[in-house]
């Protein structure tokens, strides 16, 4: 399609491969150029089946577009079209290999971006085909992107196959909340149902890719949903009630408990508005025990630089040495990992890793499994020190899994010692990073949901779980009253006394801050399920019934309140870096323990209520995870 | 680098987050020269649009390129999203119904050449709007000939 006519050249010239030279006379719209393009198109379509009407790519197919623009209205090929056996690439990617035009984009994506050498080109001439040689599933956390990359319908989405045609879908540009990256996505819905999720370009965050968890978690939005307020009766069974009754019951219990026995826990998918409302409500009831799961016993909320990715995700590309401490970016934040891999490939940056043995898709050096190695580096005794010393832009990435450790303060002070020693933080370069795990974490720390989970939950009599499913429910006292407000009937529902249904990220307007401190909004794509309401609205209603009315009753009101607490959360689409250095911290007396770092994310495909409810994610964990 | 370019735009959303009933002097200078001056929200009022639809909150955005296509024909347009989700499936036929008269206007009916014309339209109708940043690809100069460039003898570790 790039063929052009160049004066004095006997044949048409492929403009994509020919450097333009001075004095060249190039003609792009002549009969010769058009005929040449038509010829190329005819060759491309020679073996391509004419099954556009039943092809999932039909309507958003590059080959369709190209043949409309450049092709002839007939072909001269009368022989049998070739056919190719379909390959099994796993539960996510459906293959119809006869449609393949051998562009090898998927091969290049797999080996260059995803970093798995699974796909390749086999055979020659008309026997040429894409395949895995021996039957093998594509085990990459980015494998779904080959669906977008394929210019024809050879690789399509297996869960989406024959579910809808793409022109029926309504696209809503929103963001993903299944990890802390906040990938930009488009939620395609038909009527009240989410049909698929596709990536949206954002060079600062996810470039043009998304992880498989982001792309295929959407069927979890339709399963296990809570749609009515429910109260657990004396027989232990839930009974659907009206909102009025449910709120009245909760308010009555609230009157009976002492203020300091009230605890509020925000879940990992909570938006900033609802966390603000939860914090205001719990504080108004007289308690300061309000926290967000995943932030550990003493959240490092004093300085924003202590919990953000200060280099920024795009900034990682400038780094030349990476030191990963207790973090497995491939499963914790697949898009950040793709960025590190990109840097490693482009500039031969060195990666060193301290933590349990894990899979990497780039060259790395495994320095050790526990904090001892970190201490050795801090004291300059480790051989890796010379690499760090000679690095121009070193980057240290600490995992949010370290927040849960007893020796958290000592660890972070050791990391800071390393940073100081090797000049990681300079006026022109901040290479000290924390990689968060959940979408709610950064905003929760900004808003100050910082109570100690173990203490608050152990002594509570009234526990308000706002989508929090991963709190240690065994520690909750038996006589405690547990309210679960959330969108999925997940783990915590088994302990709940009252269920208040709320809307999921695809159904509400919410503010989320990602791991690098970039504030983004979700935009509702589909209506909520049943009688569910937005999280902050439920809390606002409850506050009125409980006699401690919150001073806002609209989304802009909540956002005004947020702007008083954390102004960065209202500057949407902007990354607000931390400007204060960490020099001002008090000295730490704690000792580093010798317990090795643990794997934080055991199952990449199932990390929260939505992905745990998803059938596709269950299939993925069954077939793709190595056991 | 396109990133600093993109950053240099002030956050348009910020001005709109304040609880603004009607921003003063919204239509451009050209409007004040005209014989008839249109006040913000007036168009909506005179065309008999119900009160509740004159106070809509809308999002002005530029749709991203479809992930699976490379063509640029539809890139760069601006649309208005009415953030409406009042939808249900008709239990008899399974058709989708909506309780929002604007739901399909934003999806199918309206496109603008620039963010400014979309803003002017929203102002004319008295809608409270937020403009979302448009994301554009970072283009790096590459040439095919680079692939064959002599970069000196291969290094030991790469071999």
From TrEMBL, chain A:
The lineage of its organism: Eukaryota, Viridiplantae, Streptophyta, Embryophyta, Tracheophyta. This is NADH:ubiquinone reductase (H(+)-translocating). Residues 32-71 form the 4Fe-4S His(Cys)3-ligated-type domain. One of its GO terms (biological process) is ATP synthesis coupled electron transport. Belongs to the complex I 75 kDa subunit family. Residues 169-225 form the 4Fe-4S Mo/W bis-MGD-type domain. Keywords: 2Fe-2S, 4Fe-4S, Electron transport, Iron, Iron-sulfur, Membrane, Metal-binding, Mitochondrion, Mitochondrion inner membrane, NAD, Oxidoreductase, Respiratory chain, Transit peptide, Translocase, Transport, Ubiquinone. InterPro entries: Mopterin_OxRdtase, Mopterin_OxRdtase_4Fe-4S_dom, NADH_UbQ_OxRdtase_75kDa_su_CS, NADH_UbQ_OxRdtase_ferredoxin, NADH_UbQ_OxRdtase_Gsu, NADH_UbQ_OxRdtase_Gsu_4Fe4S-bd, NDUFS1-like_C, Prok_molybdopt-oxidoreductase. Its EC number is 7.1.1.2. It holds the Pfam family Molybdopterin. NCBIfam families: NuoG. One of its GO terms (molecular function) is oxidoreductase activity, acting on NAD(P)H. It is found in: Mitochondrion inner membrane. PROSITE patterns: 4FE4S_HC3 (PS51839), 4FE4S_MOW_BIS_MGD (PS51669), COMPLEX1_75K_2 (PS00642), COMPLEX1_75K_3 (PS00643). It comes from Oryza sativa subsp. indica.
Automatic annotation (TrEMBL), chain B:
It holds the Pfam family NDUS4. It is a peripheral membrane protein. InterPro entries: NADH_UbQ_FeS_4_mit-like, NDUFS4-like_sf. Keywords: Electron transport, Membrane, Mitochondrion, Mitochondrion inner membrane, Respiratory chain, Transit peptide, Transport. GO terms for cellular component: mitochondrial inner membrane. One of its GO terms (biological process) is electron transport chain. PANTHER family: NADH DEHYDROGENASE [UBIQUINONE] IRON-SULFUR PROTEIN 4, MITOCHONDRIAL (PTHR12219:SF8), NADH-UBIQUINONE OXIDOREDUCTASE (PTHR12219). Accessory subunit of the mitochondrial membrane respiratory chain NADH dehydrogenase (Complex I), that is believed not to be involved in catalysis. Complex I functions in the transfer of electrons from NADH to the respiratory chain. The immediate electron acceptor for the enzyme is believed to be ubiquinone. Belongs to the complex I NDUFS4 subunit family. This is NADH dehydrogenase [ubiquinone] iron-sulfur protein 4, mitochondrial. It comes from Oryza sativa subsp. japonica (Rice).
């Amino acid at each position: 399609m790039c063929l052009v006519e160049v004066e004095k050249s006997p044949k048409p010239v492929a403009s994509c491969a020919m450097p333009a030279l001075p004095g060249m006379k190039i003609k792009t719209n002549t009969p010769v150029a058009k005929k040449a393009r038509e010829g190329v198109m005819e060759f491309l379509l020679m073996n391509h089946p004419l099954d556009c009407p039943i092809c999932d790519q039909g309507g958003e197919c590059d080959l369709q577009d190209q043949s409309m623009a450049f092709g002839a209205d007939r072909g001269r090929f009368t022989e049998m079209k070739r056919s190719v056996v379909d390959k099994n690439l796993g539960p996510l990617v459906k293959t119809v290999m006869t449609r393949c035009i051998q562009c090898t984009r998927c091969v290049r994506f797999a080996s260059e971006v995803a970093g798995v050498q699974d796909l390749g080109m086999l055979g020659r001439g008309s026997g040429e085909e894409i395949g895995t040689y021996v039957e093998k599933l594509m085990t990459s956390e980015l494998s779904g992107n080959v669906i977008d990359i394929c210019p024809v319908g050879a690789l399509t989405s297996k869960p989406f196959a024959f579910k809808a045609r793409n022109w029926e879908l309504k696209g809503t540009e929103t963001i993903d909340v299944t990890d802390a990256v906040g990938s930009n996505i488009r939620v395609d819905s038909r009527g009240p149902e989410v049909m698929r999720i596709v990536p949206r370009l954002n060079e600062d965050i996810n470039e043009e890719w998304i992880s498989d968890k982001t792309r295929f978690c959407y069927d979890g939005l339709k399963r296990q949903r809570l749609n009515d307020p429910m109260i657990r009766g004396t027989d232990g069974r839930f009974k659907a009630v009206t909102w009025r009754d449910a709120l009245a019951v909760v308010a009555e219990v609230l009157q009976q408990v002492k203020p300091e026995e009230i605890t509020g826990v925000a879940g990992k998918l909570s938006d900033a508005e609802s966390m603000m409302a939860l914090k205001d409500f719990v504080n108004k009831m007289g308690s300061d025990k309000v926290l967000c799961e995943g932030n550990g016993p003493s959240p490092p909320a004093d300085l924003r630089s202590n919990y953000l990715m200060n280099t920024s995700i795009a900034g990682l590309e400038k780094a030349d040495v990476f030191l990963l401490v207790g973090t497995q970016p491939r499963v914790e934040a697949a898009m950040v990992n793709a960025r590190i891999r990109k840097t490693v490939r482009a500039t031969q940056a060195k990666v060193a890793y301290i933590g349990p043995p894990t899979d990497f898709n780039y060259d790395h050096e495994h320095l050790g499994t526990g904090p001892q190695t970190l201490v050795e580096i801090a004291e300059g005794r480790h051989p890796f020190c010379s690499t760090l010393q000679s690095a121009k832009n070193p980057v240290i990435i600490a995992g949010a899994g370290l927040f849960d450790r007893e020796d958290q303060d000592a660890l972070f002070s050791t990391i800071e010692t390393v940073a100081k020693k090797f000049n990681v933080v300079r006026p022109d370069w901040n290479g000290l990073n924390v990689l968060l795990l959940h979408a709610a974490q950064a905003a929760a720390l900004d808003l100050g949901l910082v109570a100690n989970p173990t203490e608050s939950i152990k002594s509570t009599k009234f526990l308000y779980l706002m989508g929090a499913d991963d709190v240690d429910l065994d520690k909750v006292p038996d006589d405690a009253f547990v309210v679960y407000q959330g969108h999925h009937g997940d783990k915590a529902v088994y302990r709940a006394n009252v269920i208040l249904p709320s809307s999921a990220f695809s159904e509400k307007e919410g503010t989320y801050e990602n791991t690098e401190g970039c504030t983004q909004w979700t935009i509702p794509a589909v209506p909520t399920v049943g009688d569910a309401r937005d999280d902050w609205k439920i809390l606002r209603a409850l506050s009125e019934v409980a006699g401690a009315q919150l001073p806002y009753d609209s989304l802009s009101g909540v956002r005004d309140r947020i702007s008083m607490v954390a102004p960065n959360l209202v500057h949407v689409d902007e990354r607000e870096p931390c400007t204060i250095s960490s020099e001002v911290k008090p000295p730490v007396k704690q000792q580093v323990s010798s317990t090795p770092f643990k794997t934080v994310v055991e199952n990449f495909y199932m990390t929260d209520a939505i992905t745990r409810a998803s059938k596709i994610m269950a299939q993925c964990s069954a077939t793709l995870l190595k056991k | 680098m396109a990133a600093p370019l993109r950053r240099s735009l002030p956050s348009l959303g910020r001005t709109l987050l304040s609880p603004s009933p009607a921003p003063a002097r919204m239509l451009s200078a050209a409007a004040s020269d005209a014989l008839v001056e249109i006040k913000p929200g007036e168009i909506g009022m005179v065309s008999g649009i119900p009160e509740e639809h004159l106070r809509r909150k809308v999002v002005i955005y530029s749709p991203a390129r479809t992930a699976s296509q490379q063509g640029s024909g539809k890139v760069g347009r601006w649309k208005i999203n009415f953030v409406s989700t009042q939808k249900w499936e008709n239990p008899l036929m399974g058709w989708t119904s909506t309780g929002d008269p604007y739901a399909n206007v934003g999806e199918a009916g309206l496109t603008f050449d620039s963010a400014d014309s979309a803003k002017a339209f929203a102002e004319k109708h008295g809608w409270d709007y937020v403009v979302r940043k448009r994301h554009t690809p970072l283009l790096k100069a590459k040439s095919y000939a680079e692939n064959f460039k002599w970069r000196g003898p291969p290094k030991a570790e790469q071999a």
